[in-house]
Amino acid sequence: MPVCRRRDFLKLAGAAAPMFMIRTASERATDIRIERLSTRLEEFHYRAPYKFGGVPVDRATILNVACRVRTRDGRTADGFGSMPLGNVWSFPSREMSYDTTLGAMKMLAERISAITGAYGEYGHPLEINHALEPEYLKAAAEASRELKLVASVPKLCTQVTASAFDAAIHDAFGKVHGRNCYGTYGRDFAGRDLSHYLNGDFRGEYPDRYLLRRPKRRVAMFHSVGGADAVLASEMSERLNDGLPETLAEWIRYNGLTHIKIKLQGEDLKWDIERVVAIDRVASETKPGQDWKYCADFNERCPNVDYVMEFLRRVKELAPRGFERILYLEQPTARDLKADRGNVMHAAARLRPVVIDESLTDLDSLLLAREMGYTGVALKACKGQSHAVLMAAAAQKYKMFLTVQDLTCPGASLIHSVGIAAHVPGVAGVEANARQYMPGANRPWEKTHPGIFIVRDGSMRTQQLRGPGLSAAQSG
Asked: Taking the CB of residue 313, how many other CB atoms lie within 10 A of it?
């Protein structure tokens, strides 16, 4: 993807770049305008397949975005954003191939680049994203029609595709003002209060009310056990012998793990129960005395809350200690909550927080989930920094459980993700599984951010997250 200056976008974007008429509330000296964008794709193969939601994934395409912004008084700075185009997660399909859905995301990325580059208004990154997201969604609909897709690109997929652009803009905004991004969400920079983006409950409140200006010193790291990962050595047909752990016990010792995310089937109760019991046994034997915390992630495969309740009942019966270690349940049923409003989670939420992940695309989806019994929210960098900031505020306002989840994010996208976890109060931990499946993509960052990429006691250290922007200067 080429480098283009704004005047080039205006010539090239055509229908993908509408004439924007949105103005900011006032002309603030701190506002920025996008001057230039460039994008680059990277391809990585996993060292071993990662199975979730019944689908094994063995590769990733990373979208990197570089952005230059200018303030009203002429100062400029460059920002950087990066995110995997996680098509299997954000655009699942039984009818379309991996290449088809990934191809749709690549086309959409080009159109989002044109739309973003053509946006000529000054504003805060939150305002810019708020103005642009409707245009991104229109572009997704147009791309779906042109490609004659069996199903249209969903909103979640559009947010994932746009997230690296949003990150680059936030990063550049922080850098042009010489501040960490989390110091730019107050009245002095943000301009509009949260009610502009959310609802009247937030009138007079700004995002900084719900964020920490300085990161927590440590963030617990969730290790993911995928559906095809070996818990015991006997489950491996052959070893990779690449110098990294290959069984759960080996990973526990290697990273000093304390938190485990358990990927479950959601349609095979016996397997799910046995999986949790086996993992708890290995964890207990490998690191006795550890105060283990588990996330049970069903990846929206459970038919209903009865499945979840029976799962919890049987785990408690077979492994009482393992049951007590379950910190929360993640997205038990299908992401389209509107399609089955009666499929509620109230009973399960009385036992453990029930977190929405795939379902969470905006405030309306959060409020609907609360109505249906969900009591927690998974924040994700892959939905955009703007989205994470707003949903973090909403979740805290409505007293919901908080965690930060992953999209097998390596490098700058992992730094971004850990930054969210470190700056949002009450977050239970952050998932970080690129070290398991894409270690090569992480290695260039180990020297600049050792506290994040070299883990020995189950926690990530955040001392490198105090720099300007998102604290993820381009590596190499």
From this structure: 13
User: Whole-angstrom Cα distance, residue 280 to residue 325?
Assistant: 9
Report how far Cα 225 is from the mean position of its chain's Cα atoms. 18
d(CA 157, CA 33): 26
* Structural domains of the chain ordered from first start: 3-202 (3.30.390.10), 207-466 (3.20.20.120)
Q: Residue 419 in contact with residue 465, Cβ under 8 Å?
A: yes
Angle of helix 98-118 relative to helix 155-176, nearest 10 degrees, comes to 40
Query: In Å, how far from its chain's centre is CA 90?
Result: 11
Render pLDDT for 354-407 as a digit per residue (tens, 0 to 9): 999 999 999 999 999 999 999 999 999 999 999 999 999 999 999 999 999 999
What pLDDT band is residue 23 in, cutting at 50, 70 and 90? very low
Scan for tokens 């937030």, then name that residue.
202
Residue 21 has pLDDT above 50, yes or no: no
Q: CA 343 from chain center: how many Å?
A: 25
Q: Which H/E stretch holds residue 225?
A: strand 218-225
Contact residues for 263 (Cβ-Cβ < 8 A; gap 6+) = 51, 52, 224, 225, 226, 227, 297, 299
- How far CA 101 is from CA of 41, 61, 165, 243, 447, in Å, comes to 16, 12, 20, 34, 35
Question: Which run of H or of E encompasses 72?
Answer: none
DSSP letters spanning 101-144:
HHHHHHHHHHHHHHHHHH----B-HHHHHHHHHHHHHHHHHHHH
Contact predicate 356/369, CB 8 Å: yes
Q: Which helix (DSSP H) or strand (DSSP E) does residue 162 occupy?
A: helix 155-176
Q: For residue range 110-125, what is the model confidence (pLDDT) as tens digits?
A: 999 999 999 999 999 9
Asked whether the beta carbons of 404 and 434 are under 8 A apart, the reply is no
Count the helix, strand and coil residues of the chain and give each as a percent rounded to the nearest 5: 45, 20, 35
